[in-house]
Amino acid sequence: MVSSIAVGLNKGFAVEKRAVQKRQAARKGTKNRKVQFVRDVVREVVGFAPYERRMIELIRLGKDKRALKFAKKRLGSHSRGKAKREEINGVIAEMRKRK
User: Fold this and answer.
1) What digits encode the pLDDT tens for the residues 29-45?
2) Are 24 and 35 within 8 A, CB to CB?
């Protein structure tokens, strides 16, 4: 917000703001169909990591909080742990539906 005055906080020549394109880094990490498909195939072929299997057992035993603490320790942060716990809960729900 420039005032076209030579002095003051908003000094300077008034010009129209250019519309800049979004940086590629802004869309980093967004899932598309192809990425999701590849991840599903990999999960089907490879299965779960040992820590994920342990989390599944903890959640089945009803120890959600312990599963979160375990995931936090393995993944490094609270938010990553919460996301992993939700993912594992979804997997368990899907397993129950299939039976």
Assistant:
1) 888 999 999 999 999 99
2) no
Residue 77 CA to residue 83 CA, distance in Å, equals: 10
Please tell me the number of Cα atoms within 13 Å of 78 on its side-chain side: 1
Q: Residue 49 above 90 pLDDT? A: yes
- Which stretches within the chain are classed as H helix? 33-46, 50-60, 64-75, 78-98
Q: In sequence order, which residues have a C-beta less than 8 Å from that of residue 71 and are 6 or more positions away?
A: 51, 55, 80, 81, 82, 84, 85
- Report the predicted TM-score, pTM, of the whole model to 2 decimal places: 0.68
With CA atoms as reference, report the closest residue to 49 among 26, 21, 71.
71
Using one digit for the tens of pLDDT, what is the confidence trace for 60-89?
A: 999 999 999 999 999 999 999 999 999 999
The number of residues making up the chain comes to 99
